[in-house]
Amino acid sequence: MLVLHGAGVGKGIAIGKAFVLSGGTVTVPEYSIPESGQKQEVERFRNALDEARGQLEDIAANIPKDAPTESASFIEAYLLMLKDPLIADQPIDTIRTRKVNAEWALQIHSAGLIKAFDAMEDEYLRSKRTDVEHIVNRIQSNLLNIRHETLGHITSHMEGKVVIAHDLSPADAVLLKNHSVAAFAIDLGGPISHTAILARSLNIPAVVGLHGATRYIAHKETVVVDGKRGVLMAGTDKLTLEAFEERRRYVEAKQLELQALVHKPAVTKDGVAVTLQANIELPEDIGSAAKVNPQGVGLYRTEYLFMNRPQPPRETEQYTAYCRVAKRMKNPVTIRTLDLGADKQVDGGRREGPTNPALGLRAVRLCLKEPALFTPQLRAIFRASAQGPVKMMIPMVSNLDELSQVMDLIEEVKSELRREGKQFNENLPIGGMIEVPAAAVCADLFASRLDFLSIGTNDLIQYTLAIDRVDDEVNYLYDPLHPSILRLVKTTIDAGKHAKIPVTMCGEMAGDPRFTKLLLGFGLRIFSMDPAALLEVKKKILDTNVGIAEKFAAKALDCKGSQELRDLVTALDQT
């Protein structure tokens, strides 16, 4: 029996046949081609290109009609890349001039292209590096006659399968959302990467950071995925499978029990009302969110509208998407402006610069640098505010001058809309995400300028503890219970109280029931999370006495280490 350990990012247990996607890079041979064989080698390369084009067109033809438009755009972008001279023409020149095989000629030029993307300043163009790798690997596989299952095959026959991959980008995870996969497991990634966050929204078991699943798991082999414990198992005997099947039924039964809480108000034992909202990525997510009856959308991640496509969406397309969400929700919908960068895969782009995109031109910094990208979104959000209770949230604010620039641009947009006779909410609430330590320390200053604050714990923890949350070599240091994190959270909540404005938490910490009582003790009253986590958090709220939680929370701020805090949180959880 094979047991691989990683980080669990989805609850529950799944048992099914492995669907192994080709991942990582293929081994590329290098050898000389005599002049007499060059014509045949060029023909072999062109055939591999044509085969790749046919494969992608096949995939496009099989995309379900009700799938989001970005699914087709994803394939269209790949087809365009196959026409790029660096990929389609220059390898042919190299075959002829350097007298090398087609695989090595392609490797030479793709390496140069990838290096160029690596030097880009922001992920809005940097992310094309991954797309180049995918396309090159597809062509190389054709040249080497390697036949692996690829991401494109998820368009059919995926129900009940366990997807095994070297890596999945957030864009890949968006595609997976449209198919009834039982679970997935990947070699790379950390528990708070955006891919992991999307995995949770699938409401299926998932494990990341396995370091070898694609090497050791055979296609169509029966595997077990334990999303809670972060375990992938293969080669299990009959008794082990029966034991896991029993556990799977038990977990499903517990989930059915939670369904009884859907329409029950989130009120603590001592009568404190709590607001529970949902995080969504795409307009289609409103349907699944509605099943758990959230009190609004606390985070609409609009950047996913920009993924899997060669060009950003126009104002009209964004307006339509935002209206779909606003019209379906009676409660407020908080639309976050573009948070591009770091590990989010998006097409577009610009210039050379720093090599760490998480600290570079991303989120509001990118938007202010590129008003042609930002202004259409602001216009779309304001226009959608006439169709429902919309709020707008600015990500990654770090100083008041930056916020002033955003506010000036907003005023320009409002003036334009008035001149055009477009309807919008003149008093649209505008908030900021507190996810940079500088913003948390100065939360009182931001609270004086904004209508609400929202704590983004994912990046706040990453930046405070200097940990790349995508790097599975260091993500074990990612600790929501580090004393510095709790102090910054409490500082932000207190700043909101003093300014008499709402404070929400929309990071993964909000959806983790282990921390619910502690956060209630700190004074948090609005939680926004993946819909799959909402009922479990509600159950914890119903079991909480805020008075007792406040006493534990006060003690937590005096704790000197994470282990001491974990012991205290465990004790609080048992009250």
List the defining traits of the structure above.
8-stranded mixed β-sheet; alpha/beta; Glucose Oxidase, domain 1; single chain; TIM Barrel; Enzyme I, Chain A, domain 2
Please describe what this structure looks like.
- The protein is of the alpha/beta class and 575 residues long.
- It has 3 domains: 2-22 and 151-256, Glucose Oxidase, domain 1 (3-Layer(bba) Sandwich); 35-143, Orthogonal Bundle (Enzyme I, Chain A, domain 2); 262-573, Alpha-Beta Barrel (TIM Barrel).
- The chain has helices spanning 38-61, 69-81, 85-88, 90-98, 102-118, 123-126, 128-143, 170-176, 194-201, 213-216, 238-258, 285-290, 315-328, 363-369, 371-384, 400-419, 437-441, 443-447, 457-465, 483-499, 516-522, 531-542, 546-556, 562-573; strands at 2-5, 7-10, 13-20, 162-165, 183-186, 206-208, 222-226, 231-234, 275-280, 297-301, 333-336, 390-394, 430-434, 452-455, 503-505, 526-529.
- The strands form 2 sheets. Strands 1-8-7-3-4-5-6-2 form an 8-stranded mixed β-sheet. Strands 9-10-11-12-13-14-15-16 form an 8-stranded parallel barrel, surrounded by 4 helices.
- Helix 1 (38-61) packs antiparallel against helix 4 (90-98), helix 8 (170-176) runs parallel beside helix 9 (194-201) and helix 13 (315-328) runs parallel beside helix 15 (371-384).
- The protein is globular, with a radius of gyration of 25 Å.
- 49% of the residues are buried.
